[in-house]
Amino acid sequence: MLAPSSNILPIILSVACFWLIVYILSLRHLERLRKKGIEVYPLGLFFRTSKFNEIIYKIGRRYSKYWHIFFDISILIGFFLMVFIIYFLHVNLYSFIYKPAKAQEMILIIPGVTIGWNMIPYLILAIIIAFIVHELAHGIAAASEDIPIVSSGFAVILFLLAGFVELDENKLKLLSTRKKLRILSAGSFANFLVVIITWIFLLTAMWYQSPRGVLVVNTIKGYPAENHLLPGDIILSIDNHTINTISDLSRVLSQYKPGEKITIKVLRNNKVVFVELVLGNRGGKAFIGIEISQNYLRPLPENLILSAEWIYIINFSVATLNMLPIIMFDGERIIEALIEKIAKEDKLKKIMQIAISAYFFVLLGANIAFSMVR
User: Could you read off the pLDDT of 279-299 as tens digits, one per residue?
Assistant: First the structure.
């Protein structure tokens, strides 16, 4: 069972203490660790290497003409993703305040808190793929513009993983705005392509497996399903609404209000059973209180589907959130490049960057905060 949101702060503090202890223990070996490309900080560590620089540079320079066309497309997709996530966060925050039932939760992925430990292997696989394609795209785009790659590597901040490619910032500043945008939008564009590929795979897998009903994995204590549904039940319909997929279940439940009575048709031990219950309330939405999984007539290996789903989720999150104009995100660098184009005074540029970054940081934080206290 996952820990409730009230336990998140103690866990974050525990992880922070862990990294602080690691940092204190590493103080005697800082020079030796730096030689190996490892830098330890009070809240995490960085690992840098130059082993892949030449390979990435050769790939980018060999077909630079075609890469330029490819990454021109990435600029358009990058701005599309930026507009999408900005629009979503504003509308979602409005929903949290005025229409809570319609708001989409944005939960931080914290092992053992917001996701079960059994999901960790899939999460790690998805993160590795997301950051490899993201940083590789940045590196190739930079190489195609003849910008040297200083190093590449990964970072661990608290419990968050991140990849990076360090470029020659002095030469990067000399590029035209268009060339800068090619490099800065490349990472999210690469993640977006992974999203499209996994989406096609999941749609094809859905068609092949032929979804038939929603499987009840477990019931949640204190909610209506606890004394009415059993693990292994397959939900076939609610009232007169056929349920073939999890999306069907969500769509049908959205038509009801907490406190309404429904009749659920389930397949239990190869026999059809009708169950009546009164819907519960969770965040203003009608809630049955079940952990679910998709039921199929021709199921593919669960590990394959879970891997694809996590790859889709993580790459979509990176592709969109990374386009936010927040410090350390690519979106912030894109806005910086545009500001340099229109603003002449350095002081004004700095004020505009800080103000924009602060605004969107608060906007994202508000969405996450409302999600966690819901």
Answer: 998 878 889 999 888 899 898
- The pTM is what? 0.76
CB 174 within 8 A of CB 263: no
Beta-strand runs (E) in 201-279: 211-219, 234-238, 241-242, 261-268, 271-278
Packed helices 64-98 and 120-144: angle between N→C axes, nearest 10 degrees = 130
HSE, CB side, 13 Å, CA atoms: give it for residue 55: 8
User: Tens of pLDDT along 14-43?
Assistant: 878 888 888 888 888 888 888 888 888 888
Q: Which residues contact 156 (CB under 8 A, 6 or more apart)?
A: 44, 45, 162
H-assigned helices in 3-63: 8-26, 30-35, 53-62
Q: Which domain holds residue 270?
A: 211-297
Closest alpha carbon to 206 in 294, 86, 82, 94: 294
How many domains in the chain?
Answer: 2
Sign of torsion over alpha carbons 235, 236, 241, 242: positive
| Dist CA 83 CA 96 (whole Å) | 20
Q: What type of residue sits at position 369?
A: A
Task: Classify burial at 79, counting beta carbons within 10 Å of its beta carbon; exposed 0-12, middle 13-18, buried 19 or more.
Answer: middle
Whether 190 is covered by a domain: the verdict is: yes
